[in-house]
């Protein structure tokens, strides 16, 4: 695959990890998600990675009406690629996670490449006694004994059911073994090449955020996939901007957003997703690289186009 000087910025708007107490700037209602996603696109994000949240409880939700309100609103306001999660949250079944994207038939979906521990309970002590909602502490504590399930059967289901609708994938790999799981799916012909691989570092339960680990993940992907993939980096918390900078300088793409980090500097909460996009865009341009537009990202990733979705 020919290398491109253009860098795709993905912005992950809200996710299912952070809870409302953690930041007043985290968008936790459908309308807030829409506003912040539109702002991130205006700031330079070509891809918007989306989860939905309930307007009343602010919890992650798979409700179809909520999802379609978000998707239709954003489609009317931006040309950005709308990337729907198939991860949902750790506590959703595969059927619950798949229902929204199967109904919406988006251009792009995430696809997690292995089951894993996904620990968020370590955040509880920082917010003890300050919870805005009574569900938050229990939600985080439950991660101590939960498994984020992504079996081979689950992955096959995602690839076949969504692939039949023309949806392409952002393959989320939290550890080296996930790259080998992806190679297995490629060998079986379930993954269409070239593909888009997200190297995820710094999640409790996955590989650590050390620079050496990122280099090893990239080296392994090169060995397994040659030139048949594009790649990006997602690093949580304080590692977000440094590791995304590393990715851009190595020829990769980047993912930022309040799903992955709530901060815009040491001890300073980001006031929006757009702020993080602006930060990484400046770094990319300071590296004498160009930021990809949504249509350029579509061409780079071989997407079907926003006119071929079901929303």
UniProtKB/TrEMBL annotation:
Keyword Transport belongs to the record: no
A GO MF term: metal ion binding
Keywords: Metal-binding, Transferase, Zinc
Listed cofactors: Zn(2+)
InterPro entries: Aldolase_TIM, BKACE
Pfam families per UniProt: BKACE (PF05853)
PANTHER family: 3-KETO-5-AMINOHEXANOATE CLEAVAGE ENZYME, 3-KETO-5-AMINOHEXANOATE CLEAVAGE ENZYME-RELATED
Protein name: 3-keto-5-aminohexanoate cleavage protein
């Amino acid at each position: 695959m020919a290398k491109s000087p253009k860098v795709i910025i993905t912005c992950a708007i809200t996710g299912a990890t952070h809870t409302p107490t953690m930041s007043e700037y985290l968008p936790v209602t459908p309308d807030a998600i829409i506003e912040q996603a539109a702002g991130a696109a205006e700031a330079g994000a070509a891809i918007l990675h989306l989860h939905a949240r309930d307007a009343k409880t602010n919890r992650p939700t798979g409700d179809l009406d909520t999802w379609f309100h978000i998707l239709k609103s954003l489609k009317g306001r931006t040309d950005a690629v709308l990337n729907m999660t198939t991860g949902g949250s750790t506590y959703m079944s595969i059927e619950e996670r798949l229902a929204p994207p199967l109904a919406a038939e988006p251009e792009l979906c995430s696809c997690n490449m292995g089951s894993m521990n996904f620990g968020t309970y370590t955040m509880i002590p920082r917010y003890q006694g300050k919870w805005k909602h009574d569900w938050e502490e229990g939600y985080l504590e439950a991660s101590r004994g939960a498994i984020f399930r992504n079996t081979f059967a689950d992955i096959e289901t995602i690839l076949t059911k969504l692939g039949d609708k023309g949806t392409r994938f952002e393959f989320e790999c939290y550890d080296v073994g996930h790259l080998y799981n992806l190679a297995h799916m490629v060998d079986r012909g379930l993954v269409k090449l070239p593909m888009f691989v997200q190297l995820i570092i710094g999640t409790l339960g996955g590989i650590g955020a050390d620079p050496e680990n990122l280099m090893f993940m990239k080296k392994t992907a090169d060995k397994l996939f040659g030139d048949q993939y594009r790649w990006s980096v997602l690093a949580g918390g304080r590692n977000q901007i440094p590791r995304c900078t590393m990715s851009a300088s190595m020829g990769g793409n980047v993912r930022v957003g309040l799903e992955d980090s709530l901060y815009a500097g040491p001890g300073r909460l980001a006031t929006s997703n757009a702020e993080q996009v602006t930060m990484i865009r400046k770094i990319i341009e300071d590296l004498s690289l160009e930021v990809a537009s949504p249509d350029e990202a579509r061409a780079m990733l071989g997407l079907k186009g926003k006119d071929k979705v079901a929303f």
